[in-house]
Amino acid sequence: MTDTPAENAQQASFRSDVTVELVKHSAADSDVLWAARVSTAGEQSLDELRKDPERSKGLINFLMRDRHGSPFEHNSMTFFISAPIFVFREFMRHRVGWSYNEESGRYRELEPVFYVPGESRKLVQEGRPGKYRFVEGTPEQHELTGRVMEDAYRQAYRAYQEMLAAGVAREVARAVLPVGLFSSMYATCNARSLMHFLGLRTQHEQAKVPSFPQREIEMVGERMEAEWAKLMPLTHAAFNANGRVAP
Ligand SMILES: Cc1cc2nc3c(=O)[nH]c(=O)nc-3n(C[C@H](O)[C@H](O)[C@H](O)COP(=O)(O)OP(=O)(O)OC[C@H]3O[C@@H](n4cnc5c(N)ncnc54)[C@H](O)[C@@H]3O)c2cc1C
């Protein structure tokens, strides 16, 4: 027996976290070195692959500092990301050096998984545009936010299910679903495009040019950065040492 729209809405699940998995990669500090050394060594630069990259820390730092960016493009990382639609909406503004494929709301029925802020998410915004700061909410504000969001999500999903049950196409019925619904995508980038993303979508004490991203996209950025730092530790260190400005 199939569930009714109301029963399906009751089965909704609520998440405060995001998923980031590195599913495929070809990325190492030595990729930066051989690409850069073609300038002086021609085809011999491929010998760099067999050398200890630690010896070439200085070159990576020089490239980062003087913003010689193209040697940081000869690598690839593919992430599987699961996050609310409002995060993807910000994410896909990053056009250069990124490839995306997202699950379809036309070809499959969307699952009732929704975002609610966790306890550590600062809820209250103070100040004026460009100078916002976020402060903790009261326990009452946290309780209200969770409760109201869950009610609204359930109601929206019930409406979605009601239309599907009546034979309305998924691509039409999805119009009632909110941006707090989770979606999933593959996103492929290289170290240069990732650094540009991280410079804008994370807050960091070593950043020369501070940015003020929404916390939820920053959560995605932090997880991607942790994966990248393991693959390219010298490049990551040079990025931080040079103020987290993409070369
Ligand atoms: C804190 C924050 C707040 C934001 N608020 C808003 C907002 O209120 N409204 C809004 O619409 N967006 C907003 N954005 C999105 C922002 O405007 C950018 O679209 C997004 O950060 C992607 O940056 P990008 O264009 O540099 O990246 P990419 O698209 O990856 O481009 C990388 C670089 O390539 C070059 N480039 C790419 N395309 C062009 C082009 N057409 N012409 C010339 N050079 C190009 C630029 O040098 C660019 O920096 C915000 C972003 C942040 C980080």
UniProtKB/TrEMBL annotation:
Reaction it catalyzes: dUMP + (6R)-5,10-methylene-5,6,7,8-tetrahydrofolate + NADPH + H(+) = dTMP + (6S)-5,6,7,8-tetrahydrofolate + NADP(+)
Matching SUPFAM superfamilies: Thymidylate synthase-complementing protein Thy1 (SSF69796)
Pfam families for this protein: Thy1
Family matches, as CDD domains: ThyX
Cofactor binding note of this UniProt entry: Binds 4 FAD per tetramer. Each FAD binding site is formed by three monomers.
Recorded metabolic or biological pathway in which this protein acts: Pyrimidine metabolism; dTTP biosynthesis
Alphabetical list of Gene3D superfamilies matching this protein: 3.30.1360.170
InterPro entries reported for this sequence: Thymidylate_synthase_ThyX, Thymidylate_synthase_ThyX_sf
PROSITE patterns associated with the record: THYX
EC code: 2.1.1.148
Gene Ontology biological process terms, A to Z: methylation
Main EC class the enzyme belongs to: transferase
Annotated FAD binding sites: 70, 93-95, 102, 190-192, 196
HAMAP family, per the entry: ThyX
Cofactor dependency: FAD
Family: Belongs to the thymidylate synthase ThyX family.
Residues bound to dUMP: 90-93, 102-106, 174, 201
Official protein name in the record: Flavin-dependent thymidylate synthase
Keyword list, A-Z: FAD, Flavoprotein, Methyltransferase, NADP, Nucleotide biosynthesis, Transferase
Protein role: Catalyzes the reductive methylation of 2'-deoxyuridine-5'-monophosphate (dUMP) to 2'-deoxythymidine-5'-monophosphate (dTMP) while utilizing 5,10-methylenetetrahydrofolate (mTHF) as the methyl donor, and NADPH and FADH(2) as the reductant.
Active-site residues annotated for this sequence: 201
Assembly mode: Homotetramer.
GO molecular function list: thymidylate synthase (FAD) activity
